[in-house]
Design a protein that fits this description.
- This protein is an alpha+beta fold.
- It has ten helices and eight strands.
- Helix 6 runs antiparallel to helix 10, helix 7 runs antiparallel to helix 8 and helix 8 packs antiparallel against helix 9.
- The longest helix is centred in the middle third of the chain and has 28 residues.
- The chain is flat.
């Protein structure tokens, strides 16, 4: 789509915006918009955005719980406000998934095999940063308790918050640069939590605990997560520079000898160190983009 600049007095220019965009965002003459410069792009956003509700109708033929869980979680993250689901499985499966994973959603109606799942009381998107900080707190708590107690509830809570954060991005409830990098970073954090869950489940099934050396290994993994946390909160990439050597030390120096002593548990721990390190790249990309945008917008 192209538009011509119209010259105004005193060196200013105006440009028209698409009428469909105006209607979709419920704007009118006199409505305020926000302009943001992003390198050679000019981003335009309504001051008080009120998007139309998105509706999805979908049928899940497979009754397996994981199948409908994946469908509902992705529909929620992609920003749909009303989901009409046709599903032949047990009713409790749908109700539990909505309760456990979809913040602010409820099953409002069920008729035969059709469920009406809709947003009723979502948290404010203004809480986005607070929830990310909460995610770090939960994740560090998960790591601390991997070898001590069951962490299933914490991991489920982490996944629930992750879904809401990604929904916030999809719904344009936040204004951030490099949202694709942020989305990937959030996914990496969730992978860390899931990896901890599987290790915790293994230890509980075997009725065993981590050895002293394995606990020390876990302490180093925790420190890597703390580095990610500090870098995110300060938006300073220099904090990330030491992560590579930390990962290399765990995976290639300490890990191999411990792997010979206890292959099963150490497989999870080494994989966990790698997953933590993988979060480094999208976080660095996000911080660089954010700082670059902030610098440009502060320029006269």
């Amino acid at each position: 789509m192209k538009r011509k600049l119209i010259k105004q007095g005193q060196g200013g220019f105006t440009v028209t915006v698409p009428i469909t965009w105006v209607r979709d965002n419920n704007l009118d003459a006199g409505s305020e918009i926000t302009l943001k410069v992003n390198e050679d792009f000019l981003m335009i956003k309504p001051e008080h955005i009120k998007l139309k509700k998105k509706e999805l109708e979908i049928k899940v033929d497979i009754t397996r719980e994981s199948a409908v869980r994946t469908v509902l979680a992705n529909a929620y993250r992609e920003g749909f406000d009303k989901i009409i689901l046709t599903y032949k499985g047990k009713e409790d499966i749908v109700i539990n998934i909505v309760k456990e994973l979809l913040v602010g959603f409820e099953v409002l109606q069920k008729k035969e095999e059709k469920y009406i799942i809709e947003s009723v009381a979502e948290p404010s998107y203004d809480d986005f940063e607070k929830i990310i900080q909460r995610q770090f707190f939960i994740l560090l708590n998960i790591i601390d308790n991997v070898g001590k107690e069951e962490i299933k509830n914490d991991v489920e809570q982490f996944q629930k918050y992750d879904n809401f954060l990604k929904r916030s991005i999809s719904k344009r409830g936040i204004t951030l640069e490099a949202t694709s990098s942020l989305w990937q970073f959030l996914s990496n954090l969730t992978q860390i939590a899931r990896q901890c869950y599987h290790l915790n489940k293994l230890l509980r099934e075997k009725k065993t605990i981590l050895s002293k050396k394995e606990e020390e290994f876990m302490v180093q993994i925790r420190e890597m997560v703390r580095v990610l946390q500090k870098a995110y909160l300060t938006k300073e990439i220099n904090h990330l520079m030491g992560l590579h050597s930390m990962e290399q030390n765990l995976v290639y120096q300490i890990g191999p000898s411990l792997l010979k002593e206890n292959p099963t548990e150490m497989h999870y721990l080494i994989s966990l160190a790698r997953v933590v390190y993988l979060a480094n790249s999208p976080l660095m990309g996000f911080i660089i983009k954010q700082n670059n945008s902030a610098s440009k917008n502060s320029s006269p």
